[in-house]
Amino acid sequence: MTPRPLAGRTLLMSGGSRGIGLAIGVAAGRLGANVALLAKTDTPDPRLPGTVHTAAAEIEAAGGRALAVVGDVRDEADVQRAVDETVARFGGIDFCVNNASALAPLKTAELPVKRFDLMQQIQLRGTFLLTRAALPHLYRSPHAHILSLSPPVNLAPHWMGRHPAYTMAKYGMTLLTLGWAAEFAEAGIAANALWPRTLIATAAVKNLLGGDDSMQRARAPEIMADAAMAILQRPPRDCTGHTFIDEDVLRAEGLTDFSRYGGGPDVLLDLYVDP
């Protein structure tokens, strides 16, 4: 029988209709977790695979229990509704995963103000709203984790100058998360960030970061999911305040061969990761 170390635990995540978020949800379901998704994609979009409903079905097929909540992580009422429905369905919240992001890695003069606002609102406001709304339930959990999918704060000029607005939004997620690690340390609520060492084969990468060539040199989303599951199983008081890289997490778990995740020998490094 497959071990189910997350049985009885509940994970609430922003996004998750596809890509890394979906992989995390499926992995959590496979380990026995209840998974609630707050996402906007209610009906199929010809440009993007999956909806919040198809994601919930995949989680349940993997062995978990799922709740699909259609809503916008930028909207306080939608976020509170997602939290309330999650608690009503599953009885609490143990894991808050800040996955939703908008991607627009453009130079300052090229970036429309509307896209600037969208990135700050999803990455910063959305991460704050979801975590804040889940907080009363995280306090009650004996195994509470906040996990944000955001990078280590790399201040090297070649990263700072490449696309400052997107960088600010992603680094802002990390700074919030590190702040929560300090703020909630006495309560035993862990807060960590997780980022991939390499590009991950998602629709966003295909559409915005190099097309089919990049997809062939990117790893599968499951590497981030496996790293997330490893982090969420660690004791919260012993694992907080870190900016993790997926490969490092899995090496610490004893994994040395990453070929299962694809990408080939010339796999591309992700943003903010130096050789």
From TrEMBL:
<dbReference type="InterPro" id="IPR020904">
    <property type="entry name" value="Sc_DH/Rdtase_CS"/>
</dbReference>
<dbReference type="InterPro" id="IPR051935">
    <property type="entry name" value="HSDL2"/>
</dbReference>
<dbReference type="InterPro" id="IPR036291">
    <property type="entry name" value="NAD(P)-bd_dom_sf"/>
</dbReference>
<dbReference type="GO" id="GO:0016491">
    <property type="term" value="F:oxidoreductase activity"/>
</dbReference>
<keyword id="KW-0560">Oxidoreductase</keyword>
<keyword id="KW-0576">Peroxisome</keyword>
<comment type="similarity">
    <text>Belongs to the short-chain dehydrogenases/reductases (SDR) family.</text>
</comment>
<keyword id="KW-0521">NADP</keyword>
<protein>
    <submittedName>
        <fullName>NAD(P)-dependent oxidoreductase</fullName>
    </submittedName>
</protein>
<dbReference type="Pfam" id="PF00106">
    <property type="entry name" value="adh_short"/>
</dbReference>
<dbReference type="InterPro" id="IPR002347">
    <property type="entry name" value="SDR_fam"/>
</dbReference>
